């Protein structure tokens, strides 16, 4: 019997299509790898093909924009928004406009063209997390920016134009509509119940255990009760914190472990599926710190959004979230991967 489930945060209804119940092996998707190694600008030794480094983790004694790096951040060569301009708004009748002001950066996660975060050592993933944090915190200083969106597209289906492992960051002069909706829902729940809705969700999920995929002392990975997509997985900090940028240094490795474990299990269970992940965090100058809780949403691209979804706002998920969690929990632990050599970091070019 199909089931309708309501997401308590977005208040969106999802159809859990049990009569279409699918196993991991039922999902077919295109190969992630494409033959772009020869033209890849992110590979080591091709630093001149990208804009100059903004930040990097690299071996001692190596210079910016040369080989020897572990993680590297550069401006996007074809940015969606540009750093120059004003956030002043103008109106033309019912229409409003402003300059396309923002920042668009690429976090190149490794020199290895053929791997991804789910297969790298935890300490390497921690270097990537530190790169996210450094850029997120640095951009807070530009008062034109209201929000920084950190995201990763893995595979062509998920929107990646290059297969070399990389994430992206876009700083925006306004908070996105989706973030505003989450903040509104969090405030509404806090007003009724006096607690953070994400903290309440975590407490209930941990008591049940049915949708938990992985946990360590600081983070929990779970399948949302009203998952929009098969194997949609969220990673949440156990301690209430609205701002990703406030992550403590001793939580960087546990977060890297939770992220790596989640992506590895999806890789092993679903044969390296395309996916998007997005870090949902608090706007730079928001006012609902008591109500909101930062988190990561990982969304495998295994089904297509079609006419019914666009027309109704509903999603149809053919995998029961409890079954998805069970499949992911049953993935054997990954083989140990040797540690990467710790490198130094630098900030602006020339540091």
UniProtKB/TrEMBL annotation:
Gene3D superfamilies, alphabetized: HIT-like (3.30.428.10)
Record flagged with keyword Nucleotidyltransferase: yes
Pfam annotation, one family: GalP_UDP_tr_C
Cofactor entry: Zn(2+)
UniProt KW keywords: Carbohydrate metabolism, Galactose metabolism, Metal-binding, Nucleotidyltransferase, Transferase, Zinc
Residues spanning the signal sequence: none
GO terms for MF: UDP-glucose:hexose-1-phosphate uridylyltransferase activity; zinc ion binding
Domain Galactose-1-phosphate uridyl transferase C-terminal: 184-299
Binding locations of Zn(2+): 40, 43, 113, 164
Family: Belongs to the galactose-1-phosphate uridylyltransferase type 1 family.
Entry-linked PANTHER family: ADP-GLUCOSE PHOSPHORYLASE (PTHR42763), UDP-GLUCOSE--HEXOSE-1-PHOSPHATE URIDYLYLTRANSFERASE (PTHR42763:SF1)
Name this polypeptide is given: Galactose-1-phosphate uridylyltransferase
Gene responsible for this protein: galT
């Amino acid at each position: 019997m199909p089931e309708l489930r309501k997401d308590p945060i977005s208040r969106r209804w999802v159809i859990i299509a049990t009569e279409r119940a699918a196993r991991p092996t039922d999902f077919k998707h295109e190969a992630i790898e494409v033959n772009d190694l020869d033209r890849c600008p992110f590979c080591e030794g091709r630093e001149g093909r990208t804009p100059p480094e903004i930040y990097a983790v690299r071996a001692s004694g190596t210079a910016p924009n040369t080989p020897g790096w572990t993680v590297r951040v550069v401006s996007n060569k074809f940015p969606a928004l540009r750093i120059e301009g004003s956030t002043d708004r103008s109106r033309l009748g019912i229409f409003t406009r402003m300059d396309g002001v923002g920042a668009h950066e690429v976090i190149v996660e490794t020199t290895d063209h053929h791997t991804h975060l789910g297969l790298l050592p935890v300490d390497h993933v921690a270097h990537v997390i530190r790169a996210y944090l450094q850029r997120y915190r640095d951009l807070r200083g530009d008062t034109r920016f209201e929000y920084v969106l950190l995201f990763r597209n893995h595979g062509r289906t998920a929107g990646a134009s290059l297969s070399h492992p990389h994430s992206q960051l876009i700083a925006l002069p306004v908070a996105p509509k989706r973030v505003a909706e989450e903040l509104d829902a969090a405030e509404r729940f806090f007003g009724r119940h006096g607690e953070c809705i994400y903290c309440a969700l975590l407490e209930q999920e941990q008591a049940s255990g049915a949708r938990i995929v992985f946990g360590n002392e600081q983070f929990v990975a779970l399948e949302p009760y009203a998952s929009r997509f098969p194997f949609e997985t969220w990673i949440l900090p156990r301690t209430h914190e609205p701002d990703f940028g406030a992550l403590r240094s001793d939580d960087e490795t546990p977060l890297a472990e939770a992220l790596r474990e989640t992506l590895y299990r999806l890789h092993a269970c679903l044969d390296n599926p395309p996916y998007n992940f997005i870090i949902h965090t608090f706007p730079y100058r928001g006012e609902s710190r008591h109500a909101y809780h930062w988190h990561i949403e990982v969304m495998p691209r295994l089904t297509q959004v079609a006419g019914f979804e666009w027309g109704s706002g509903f999603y149809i998920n053919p995998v029961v979230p409890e079954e998805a969690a069970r499949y992911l929990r049953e993935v054997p632990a990954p083989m140990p991967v040797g540690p990467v050599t710790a490198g130094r970091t630098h900030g602006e070019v020339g540091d």
